[in-house]
Write a structure and sequence with these properties.
Length: 317
């Protein structure tokens, strides 16, 4: 059977090339998957440990700031469970009802964590303002100081580990989890300052420390929420990235021009669509080969690119 390239002033007869299926996107290696899930599992375990410590100290001291940190750790554990679930779901391969995979599930997980942070922060601020109006005695502040110093050490190492894991594996859920531990660490510092003032006789500073923790949590939730919503709304890569993608396409041998370049994020991955114009005097097979060259060069330069859809067009003379 015969087919043709058709363009003004040229008609090239060719043999129809057989259909070539696009190569299947390979999933990440199982080792990488287990590392992400192992990081999320460790986060759950550490949060559970911190909850037990803070609960005991909060009951003994009666410190609202420590109760705020307890609530923080409790919701952190729930967020870590969301992170684990999000990562596990996002790593499922594409199926008949989700042709582009499940990467956005991590963004949903991150958004759910953000909502939990906001709820916790509002409750803490409300309780702190109530304590300022009706002060309550705080006891055993030395125990509270020891517990918060220990918390800072744990939070520092866990947040550092999770930040590294999120960058290595491109996980928004692990990134959100890492920020939970970062805010927990900064909150513990604020609590220590508040308890020092309480020991000096200024009990109101315990509530001030709690409010500082809550405001810090709200700031982090804003940053995480904005990133999650952008990803769920199919935000495009930055202009510099789009320009570099265009440069790679135009510099590929055989490409004479291109237009309708579009890209969007799906989770941490990027989907690219572009119309590429080639000489109208080449065969379909040659045009097909050029499109594969474009795709291979883009993925080699940007590992985060998951798929490239290329529409080949004849370039008018």
């Amino acid at each position: 059977m015969e087919g043709f390239w058709i363009c003004p002033g040229a008609l090239t007869k060719i043999q129809k090339t057989p259909y070539i299926a696009m190569e299947k996107q390979t999933d990440k290696p199982p080792v990488q998957k287990s590392k992400k899930l192992r990081a999320a599992s460790m986060s759950i375990g550490v949060n559970l440990f911190l909850i037990v410590i803070k609960l005991a100290v909060a009951i003994i001291t009666g410190s609202l700031a420590i109760f705020a940190e307890l609530a923080h750790s409790f919701f952190d554990m729930i967020a870590s469970i969301f992170a684990y679930t999000g990562i596990k779901k996002a790593e499922e391969p594409a199926d008949s009802s989700h042709h582009y995979g499940h990467e956005k599930f991590e963004n949903l997980s991150s958004l759910a964590q953000t909502i939990l942070i906001v709820i916790t922060s509002v409750i803490i601020i409300y309780e702190a303002l109530d304590r300022i109006r009706s002060p309550k005695p705080i006891e055993a502040t030395e125990l509270g100081l020891i517990a918060m110093v220990a918390t800072i050490g744990v939070d520092y190492f866990v947040s550092k580990y999770l930040h590294k894991a999120s960058e290595e594996h491109g996980s928004s859920a692990l990134e959100a989890d890492a920020y939970h531990f970062t805010t927990d660490m900064l909150g513990a510092i604020a609590v220590i300052v508040g308890l020092v003032f309480v020991m000096a006789g200024f009990t109101m500073f315990d509530s001030f420390a709690a409010i500082f923790v809550a405001l810090l949590m709200l700031w982090i939730s804003y940053r995480l929420g904005r990133k999650s919503i952008n990803a769920l709304m199919d935000v495009s890569p930055q202009d510099a990235v789009m320009k570099q993608i265009g440069t790679i396409i135009s510099s590929t041998p055989g490409v004479e021009n291109f237009h309708k370049l579009k890209a969007r994020y799906v989770g941490k991955k990027i989907l690219v669509d572009v119309h590429v114009q080639v000489s109208c005097n080449i065969t379909v097979q040659e045009g097909h080969d050029i499109s594969h060259d474009v795709k291979e060069r883009l993925i080699a330069e940007f590992p985060d690119i998951k798929e490239v859809t290329i529409h080949i067009e004849p370039n008018p003379p």
